[in-house]
Design a protein that fits this description.
Bound molecules: 5'-O-[(R)-(carboxyoxy)(hydroxy)phosphoryl]adenosine, zinc ion
Number of domains: 2
Order of helices and strands: EEEHHEHEHEEEHHHHEHEHH
Largest sheet: 5 strands, mixed
CATH topology of the largest domain: Nucleotidyltransferase, domain 5
Distance between the termini: 33 Å
Helix content: 40-55%
CATH superfamily of the largest domain: ATPase, nucleotide binding domain
Number of strands: 10
CATH class of the largest domain: Alpha Beta
Structural class: alpha/beta
């Protein structure tokens, strides 16, 4: 059968990315241009700057992805793009570009939900995954638990009622003056922290459902940090360790509870926070005790990229699930 080559484009936040993937599996190119150094100066993503940078970078990034794939634009079978959710101005750059390209090449256009892409990153590297599965989606904007009867169906079991896990990492890091993005910085500090030196609550752990809440933990962490600073007794490493542990403990316990409740033996992790080594290690360790399989994408595919978009788009392609050229970007969408 003819190989289906799809160009994926991702511009929902602060990464301009493009990739060419064959048959939803084989990554021919995966180009990511990160704007992190630009936004770092401001302590977070500045939406207007993000849009402008996407405009500057989208052509060279797509050109590089095509070039590296070894194919030509004309060899593509479809153009896929993240159209939701994300920063609206940022999304619009990718969506407008993809529409124009699809129109110019006379190829079908496919639109992808950013979080579905994150989840699909698992399939790019672990085709052996067995369904049904429970998937923990943890990113800068989302924290959700899903039941997946197959690789492209998503049933929401629970989600955060306030802050997302990544948002909590970022806000606490910012409060402690550690910089942006907070997740990787806190992880690094936590590696030098001492277990048990400080204590923070495992917020919402016993809520009796599969929802999460991180705003209480964030406030508790900020209050504890203020108190330690006043006492002249503030260890960044211990604080990072305890905050990360408190968050990871809740994520792991609730995911295991979901797996038990829905009798599944596969757990998937997805989204930027799934790059967290403490989360990966604890989930793997606890799952092993219960004979459950845990999968997560490699670091490059865990954070924002376009290979996950091009990969998932293949499943839309085979169902002829194409988007009209007047399709829009959407800043919000549920999972
Ligand atoms: O998925 P992603 O790249 O973008 C969104 O779709 O939101 O996730 C970004 C989030 C940020 O909040 C960042 O702090 C967090 O992922 N993150 C991490 C790590 N790497 C990225 N959080 C904890 N530990 C990490 N190693
Ligand atoms: Zn993302």
């Amino acid at each position: 059968m003819h190989e289906i080559k799809i160009l994926g484009i991702e511009s929902s936040c602060d990464e301009t990315a493009a990739a060419v993937v064959v048959n939803g599996r084989q990554i021919l190119s995966n180009i990511i241009h990160s704007q992190v150094p630009i936004h770092q100066t401001f302590g977070g993503v500045v939406p207007e700057i993000a849009s402008r940078k996407h405009i500057e970078n989208i052509v060279p990034v797509v050109e590089a992805a095509i070039h590296e794939s070894g194919f030509d634009y004309r060899d593509l079978d479809a153009v896929a793009v993240t159209n939701r959710p994300g920063l609206i101005g940022a999304l619009l750059v990718g969506v407008s570009f993809a529409k124009a390209l699809a129109y110019g090449l006379n190829k079908p256009l496919i639109v992808i939900h950013h979080l579905h892409g994150h989840i699909y990153a698992n399939m790019l590297e672990h085709p052996e995954i067995r369904y049904p599965a429970v998937c923990l989606v943890v990113s800068g904007g989302h924290t959700s638990l899903l039941y997946m009867k197959d690789q492209i169906s998503y049933q929401l079991l629970g989600e955060t009622i306030d802050d997302a896990a990544g948002e909590a990492f970022d806000k606490v890091a910012r409060f402690m003056g550690l910089g942006y993005p907070g997740g990787p910085i806190i992880q690094k500090m936590a590696e030098k922290g001492t277990a048990g030196a400080l204590h923070l609550p495992r917020v919402y752990l016993n809520s009796g459902n599969l929802d999460f809440s991180f705003s209480g933990l964030k406030t508790a962490a900020m209050n504890l940090w203020k108190k330690l600073e006043r006492q002249g007794d503030a260890s960044v490493n211990d604080m990072a360790f305890e905050f990360q542990s408190a968050l990871v403990d809740v994520l792991v316990e609730k995911t295991l509870a979901a797996a038990k409740q829905y009798s599944v033996s596969t757990i998937l992790l997805a989204g930027g926070v799934a790059a967290n080594q403490a989360l990966r290690d604890k989930m793997t360790e606890e799952a092993r005790k219960r004979r459950l399989a845990v999968y997560y994408p490699s670091l490059k595919l865990c954070t924002d990229n376009a290979a996950m978009i091009a990969g998932l788009a293949y499943h839309h392609f085979i169902r002829k699930d194409f988007a009209p050229l007047n399709v829009n970007a959407q800043s919000q969408d549920s999972l």
